[in-house]
Design a protein that fits this description.
The complex is a heterodimer. By secondary structure, chain A is an alpha/beta fold. Chain A contains four helices and eight strands. Chain B is built from twelve helices and ten strands. A five-stranded parallel beta sheet of chain B has the order 8-7-6-9-10. In chain B, strands 3-2-4-5 form a four-stranded parallel beta sheet. In chain B, helix 5 crosses helix 6 and helix 5 packs across helix 12. The chains are: A alpha/beta, B alpha/beta.
């Protein structure tokens, strides 16, 4: 089990290598006839989905559409929250019908975000199948949800969080385990 | 699940007057996300207000505002009760406070109300636990109309800062104008009120320093970025202030001749309902510069944003 303030589970070089490996693994999971789209869960899932699309294009030569999913309005704790979580637009400028949707997020923890994301995306159309890809899969699930592809699987005690930082949002790449 | 939160510092939306520029910007920014919901090709409903009870309490006739609120509520998955003054106990002599206390006993979360008395909402807000949204109180305020006007202008121009806006017509009887004056001046727009001296109270310049008042529509048209035409409200007594409809139209109607003096890319707004041929001609109301139906479309996401922001517990609150 990692210590509270490290060691750093992923440095920038490892993150890049991990995303390349995830893109390659995803390609092996797809049947030739499948039309794949990536949906990044806001906020950190979106830059991850964009980077994966770049790697997928390099690997297959095909452009993969990327959309952004904001799950705020579908949260199961929304009406009890003090203050309003800021809702950002969902952007899915393509059809989901008969597509293979790969949901992309930074960390899979309780599974509640993914539950909300499934509800949100089904309001946009009926995909052929949905897969879940995360950079870090940590312990602590509260719903029966698993990742199809994970860059890192880590046991983290309660009271700690897996912090993913991305250049696009945080100015640097990295994954650390921190005490909350 | 962590996410950035905005604590809207008001329990009620009684008017634009109590709102800061940050509050106004928060509502308009949030409305952008709800516009995406309204434009979806598939399901235009989100579960944001599930389990919340919204009462639409209309003591005055309204079709478009009430429909717009009701669509907004339905798109947020709220439970809705419509309370019409016509069919209510008001006809049996019940007071506003009694009506409110009876509603309160059923624990609504939000009350959207229109009432002919200025300040009716402020009075009610002192007796109710629910959040109150002003959908029009006499000639006082109509905050969601001003917010949807601002949303429409901001979407078109990118910003309200420095925008030149003329508001034309029956200024005296308009609640739309008062809410717009608070909002536009607070967001840095340059407002000119235009109308006959009898319909533009001079004291408004004292309440909103920096605004211009003009009785010569032709003189101020060329410099405007946006022209907001108001409805001549003959049912509210506009007729008593002007010599006649013909003369009113001659000086204050927006028609093709006046549009020729305006900037080529000027935009035309109107809160509706339009008196075609009176304050505006059909060719202008339906012409390429009009944003009138955009205003109607934008009303729904703007009202969704207001209901969303008021639906959460707020901690420390000011009215």
């Amino acid at each position: 089990m990692p210590e509270a303030q490290g060691p750093c589970p992923m440095d920038p070089g490892q993150m890049d290598a991990t995303l390349r490996r995830l893109a390659a693994d995803l390609v092996t999971r797809l049947r030739p006839e499948e039309e794949v789209v990536l949906l990044g869960i806001r906020s950190r899932g979106l830059p991850l989905a964009e980077r994966l699309a770049t790697h997928l294009r390099a690997a297959t030569g095909a452009a993969v559409p990327v959309g952004a999913l904001d799950i705020t309005l579908y949260r199961d704790d929304l009406t009890e929250m003090v203050g309003s979580p800021i809702v950002r637009p969902t952007e899915i400028p393509f059809t989901l019908k008969e597509r293979t949707v790969v949901l992309v997020d930074d960390v899979l923890y309780t599974g509640r975000t993914v539950r909300a994301a499934l509800d949100a995306l089904l309001d946009h159309g009926r995909p052929r199948r949905v897969m879940l890809l995360v950079l870090a899969d940590r312990s602590g699930r509260e719903l029966p949800i698993q990742a199809d592809l994970a860059g890192l699987r880590v046991e983290v005690p309660p009271g700690h969080r897996v912090a993913v930082r991305l250049k696009e949002i945080d100015g640097e790449d990295g994954v650390t385990v921190e005490a909350c | 699940m962590t996410s950035e939160r905005y604590v809207f510092p008001h329990k009620h939306l009684l008017g634009i007057e109590p709102l800061s520029p940050q509050d106004i910007t928060a509502i308009l920014d949030q409305a952008r996300a709800f516009e995406e919901v309204c434009e979806r090709p598939s399901i235009k409903i989100v579960p944001a207000l599930r389990k919340k009870l919204v009462v639409n309490l209309f003591f005055e006739n309204s079709t478009r505002t009430r429909n717009s609120f009701e669509i907004a509520e339905k798109r947020l998955s709220a439970e809705i009760i419509n309370f019409d003054a016509d069919t209510s106990s008001l006809n049996k002599g019940e007071t506003l406070i009694d009506t409110a206390m009876n509603l309160e006993a059923m624990h609504p979360d939000l009350i959207v109300m229109r009432h002919s008395a200025p300040g009716a909402h402020a009075l009610l807000s002192r007796h109710m636990k629910a959040s109150i949204v002003n959908a029009g109180d006499g000639a006082h305020e109509h905050p969601t109309q001003a917010l949807l006007d601002a949303y429409t202008l901001r979407k078109h121009f990118g910003s309200l800062e420095g925008l030149r806006v003329a508001i034309v017509g029956d200024i005296r009887n308009s609640r739309v104008v008062r809410s717009n004056l608070w909002l536009l001046t607070r967001m840095g727009a340059k407002v000119t009120l235009v109308g006959p001296p009898t319909l533009v109270p001079q004291e408004m310049a004292a309440t909103w320093p920096g605004i211009k008042i003009s009785h010569d529509f032709d003189a101020v048209i060329p410099e405007q970025d946006a022209i907001m035409m108001l409805r001549a409200q003959f049912e509210r007594g506009t007729g008593a202030y002007i010599p006649g409809q013909g003369e009113y139209s001659r000086f204050f109607q927006l028609n093709p001749a006046r549009m020729k003096q305006a900037k080529k890319d000027v935009v035309v707004l109107h809160p509706g309902p339009i008196n075609r041929g009176l304050e505006i001609t059909s060719d202008v109301a339906d012409g390429p510069n009009n944003l009138i139906l955009d205003q109607v479309t934008n009303g729904v996401p703007v009202r969704m944003a207001v209901l969303y922001l008021l639906s959460h517990p707020h901690g420390e609150q000011v009215p």
